[in-house]
Every structure is written in C-alpha cells, then in structure tokens.
C-alpha cells in the first residue's frame, strides 16, 4: 500500500482513497495468523465503512479464468466471500470510533459470465450467508453487523463511488 492508494494484487487496477478518512488493508496482519480471511480493503468515510472484495478474471494473464467462472456459482465460493466479511468484522470490533458508522460490503466482480443477472443471483446467494438475519435474531444488539451488500462490476462501482474509482494503472 502506498499511502491511501489501494493497488490490487495483480497490479493492474488501483483505487485512490486519499479523500477517505482511512484506508485499511488487513491482509498482511491476517495472513500471519493463517486463521483469518479478510476483504481486500476497507474504506472509512464520514458515515460509512465500505468493505470491498475484488476479483477480476478478465485481466491479461489471469490464471484459469474458466475455472474461476465455474467456481463463482458454488456454495463454497458464497461461503468464502461471506467469511471474508465476518473475519474482517473482528478487526472492526476493536475500533470503537467505527462502530457508529453504517457497514456496507461490495463484491466487485469482473468475470466473463458475471453479467447483471448473474451478479444479482450471486448477491442473493451470498447475502444469505451474511449476518442480515442473524442481527435481527440476537437480542439487545446495539450495532448492526451489516447494512448493505451488493455485487457490482467495475463500471457500477465507479458510478457508485466516483471519488474512489477503480482505474487501470
């Protein structure tokens, strides 16, 4: 990470988060534990905390994009994307100042088979694994665990967050 610039693992895309309050990348810390998964980045804004998981099988040199396209329609994939959120929440629980903000999770997905219908289907399947229902069942909960979840492509992300565009390097 270079300041508040997120560069995805393939070095093809970046997000300039310099106007955010904070950019959090847990990977280096969580990778040491071998127990926790994490979202790719967390962007802290005035009223929201934006959790972002990014997958792109369309970049030049992507390893086995066909296998990834098959994998995104499996229950294991839904669980893995949900787990990244749950495990990232562990860090958030230790940051009291972030507890008062809305938690929104975005899965940015670029994949040959991930058209708008597929992205909506994925969102529905993954959402069932996220704590939307759980937070309604737990008595005396003071903070929602999640406020929103969407599966979007890069174009949709850039429309939602023009200040934090995913741009090619």
Characterization of the model:
It is built from 6 helices and 8 strands. The chain is α/β, with parallel strands linked by helices and 169 residues long. The strands form 2 sheets. A 5-stranded mixed sheet has the order 3-4-5-6-7. A 3-stranded antiparallel sheet has the order 1-2-8. It is globular and about 45 Å long.
Taking all Cα atoms into account, the compactness measure Rg is 16 Å
What is the N-to-C order of secondary-structure elements (H for helix, E for strand)? EEEHEEHHEHHEHE
| Helix content estimate | 25-40%
Query: What would the average pLDDT be, to the nearest integer?
Result: 91
Query: How many individual helices?
Result: 6
Give the low-confidence spans: none
Strand order of the largest sheet: 3-4-5-6-7
The portion of residues forming beta strands comes to 15-25%
Alpha-carbon distance between the two ends: 14 Å
Shape designation: globular
Give the structural class.
alpha/beta
Q: Quick one: biggest sheet? A: 5 strands, mixed
Number of strand elements: 8
């Amino acid at each position: 990470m270079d300041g508040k610039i997120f560069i995805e693992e393939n070095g093809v895309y970046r997000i300039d988060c310099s106007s955010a309050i904070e950019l959090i990348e847990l990977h280096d810390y969580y990778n040491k534990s071998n127990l926790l998964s994490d979202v790719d980045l967390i962007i802290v804004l005035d009223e929201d905390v934006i959790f972002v998981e990014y997958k792109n099988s369309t970049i030049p040199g992507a390893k086995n994009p066909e296998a990834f396209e098959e994998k995104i329609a499996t229950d294991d994939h839904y669980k893995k994307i949900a787990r990244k959120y749950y495990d990232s929440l562990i860090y958030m629980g230790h940051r009291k100042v972030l507890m008062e903000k809305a938690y929104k999770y975005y899965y940015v997905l670029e994949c040959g088979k991930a058209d708008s219908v597929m992205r909506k289907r994925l969102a529905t399947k993954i959402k069932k694994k996220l704590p939307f229902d759980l937070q309604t069942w737990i008595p005396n909960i003071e903070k929602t665990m999640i406020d929103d979840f969407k599966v979007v492509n890069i174009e949709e992300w850039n429309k939602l967050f023009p200040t934090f565009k995913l741009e090619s390097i």
